[in-house]
From TrEMBL:
Basic residues composition-biased segments: 9-22
Stretches with biased composition (Pro residues): 73-95
Region (Disordered): 1-22, 45-105
Stated name of the protein: Lipoprotein
Compositional bias annotation for Low complexity: 96-105
Length: 288
């Protein structure tokens, strides 16, 4: 694509998240008080046109960000009660994910139940394939294999701004967005004109529509913020704005791109409650 890790312009406005702080106040009573506690929660690899900031609606799945109520236990009863059932044993660790060696597998969080594996054809190749795995009681179940593109020069385990390589590693997937309205994403979604892009890619292909849908890869990205957010915890020199986005038919600057239908499937499937991550790199590196 035409540029990488470039800061979007000013003028960003984001509407509040769907999560709200909730307080419950009980009336005074002569009995002992009852306490009710409430537990509350870019340049990417293309040129962003317009404001370059999230100025649209950001939605959040209610199951992810909604309040959870908890009340004090009731007073003891004189009637004997049955003992609590024995605790349920946790699910056994499933067999390793296909293609991942012991070092890479060890970096996958234990609570991750959805893993997007991006496997590059070679260290210096811009072509890769993507498989979504779900953890079940019988182990990891993989879906179809989707073709994809990565950065022009391939992969690196030490990504820097404009090096034209995608970072190797295991990263969480927390936030999404796009130029088009939310297609039913379970991840918090930012709908904004800041995702507009124009120009042509490395092979002369048009870039328009590449950011119709995106999922932020949490490499040098502040989790819980729009993909357009410019926060860079590792510093600007380490790049950022690295996304899963719609494929435009050619190499990217650092992102991973795949066909629109498959990206929409990811948006509708990846669930914050399942702690999704992406494992990405060339095949030899992932096998370590």
């Amino acid at each position: 694509m035409t540029s990488s890790d470039r800061r979007p312009g000013a003028g960003r406005h984001r509407s509040p998240s769907a999560a709200h702080r909730v307080r419950a106040v009980l009336p005074r009573v002569s009995l002992p008080a009852v306490v009710l506690a409430t537990v509350l929660s870019t340049g990417a690899c293309g040129t962003l046109q317009g404001s370059g900031r999230a100025d649209g609606e950001r939605t959040t799945a209610a199951a992810d960000r909604g309040p959870v109520g908890r009340t004090a236990p009731p007073a003891p009863s004189a009637t004997p009660t049955a003992p609590d059932p024995a605790p349920t044993a946790p699910d056994p660790a499933p067999a390793g994910l296909p293609g991942l060696g012991p070092a890479t597998s060890a970096r996958v969080p234990a609570d991750a139940r959805q893993v997007v594996v991006v496997t590059g054809q070679g260290r210096n190749s811009a072509r890769s394939h993507v498989v979504l795995y779900r953890r079940t009681g019988s182990g990891w179940q993989g879906g179809a294999t989707w073709s994809a593109h990565n950065a022009l020069k391939g992969w690196t385990d030490d990504h820097h701004l404009n090096d034209l390589r995608s970072p190797i590693g295991v990263f969480t997937l927390s936030d999404a967005g796009g130029l088009l309205p939310d297609p039913g994403s379970k991840l918090p979604y930012t709908h904004s004109g800041g995702f507009s892009v124009g120009g042509t890619g490395f092979e002369g292909e048009p870039l328009a529509g590449s950011f119709d849908y995106v999922i932020a890869i949490d490499y040098n990205h502040v989790k819980g913020t729009s993909p357009l957010d410019w926060g860079r915890p590792l510093g600007a020199d380490k790049g950022g704005g690295i996304w899963l986005h719609v494929d435009h038919g050619g190499p990217t600057h650092a992102c991973v791109s795949l066909p629109e239908a498959h990206l929409k499937e990811l948006l509708r499937t990846l669930d914050p409650a399942q702690h999704p991550v992406v494992v990405m790199g060339d095949a030899a590196s992932l096998a370590e």
